[in-house]
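Chapter summary example.
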Amino acid sequence: MLAAAGIVLTDEERAGIEVAGFGLGHLEEQGLELITYVNTDRYCAKDLVLFPGQTCPEHLHPDVDGLPGKMETFRCRSGKVFLYVEGEATPRTQANVPAASEPHYTVFHEIVLHPGEQYTIAPGTKHWFQGGPEGAVVSEFSSTSRDELDIFTDPAIVRMPVTVEDE
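The structure predicted for these 167 residues follows.
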C-alpha cells in the first residue's frame, strides 16, 4: 500500500514498521501500521497504514507534564479515511464500529478524507479513524508523540508497539 501511494521506505524504515494491535487480538479489525520518521521533543512525522475497514480505536492525547497533548494533522495520501472527532454526530456514518467494542466508541462527527485532503485534531480531542473500502495511507504531522500515554475509551486496550521483525 505504501509503494502504491508512492512512498519509498529505506530498509531501516521497513524493519521498524510498528504494528499496533492494541492488545485486542484482532488486528484486522482494530489496529494499524505505523512508520515513524522523526519524533523529537518538538515535532513528529509518521505514515499510518489502515487496511480496508481497519480501525484505530477511540482515544485522546492528554496533557503531559503541564504541556498540551499532541496536536496532529492527518493528510490522506491514498484510499479514503473516515475520521471521527468530538462535535455534532453525523446522522449516517460511513464507518462500521467494531461490534465487540461498540460501547467504547462515543464520538461520531464524521470527516471523510480523500487523497490530498487533511484535517487537524486539537490536543485533548477524542477521535478514532477507519480505513475505507480500499484502505488508506495517511501522513501524520504532529507535535511530540507520546503514544504510550494516549487515553483510550476501551479499558481493555494495551498500547504496546510490535515491529514487523517481532512478528
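To summarize the output: The chain has a mean pLDDT of 93.
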